[in-house]
Amino acid sequence: MAQDLRQLIEGILRDSRDMVLATASGNIPWAAELVFGHDANFNLYWISDLNARHSQELEKNPNVAAVITVQPAGEIKDRGLQIQGKAYRLKEEEIVAAAREYFAKRGTPHMPKTIEEVNKLTQGRSWYVLKPTKIYILDEELFGYDRKEFIT
């Protein structure tokens, strides 16, 4: 069953391009829609301005949540993920690998090989990762309105 859940998660991540990231400061929540890339461990990567509200909030509180949905078309049933985990700004030595995952998903013809190439593509924005601790899988066709839990 765990392997089947991994395949479902990978399929949803592959078929999606946007996530909604939830952060909080004090008792005040915030949600931001972001374009993401991912790796085989379901880590989610994105770029943002350091001054963006979600960037500022996750620096103070790394506990975040995210939602990713596959937009249904026609007869296709709803599919998506609800994710909780920790997020942080990547260290320079982590950026090139994250950027390659991010740009591969977008079909970028020339994959960056150096931090300089990445910086040229991202124009000074910072790189972040969400490392999931728990993922809920929603698949209306397979589970109806129930969801399945996957703990990383």
Automatic annotation (TrEMBL):
SUPFAM superfamilies, per the entry: FMN-binding split barrel (SSF50475)
InterPro entries: Pyridox_Oxase_N, Split_barrel_FMN-bd
Domain Pyridoxamine 5'-phosphate oxidase N-terminal: residue ranges: 9-137
Protein name: Pyridoxamine 5'-phosphate oxidase N-terminal domain-containing protein
Organism the protein comes from: Candidatus Curtissbacteria bacterium RIFCSPHIGHO2_01_FULL_41_13
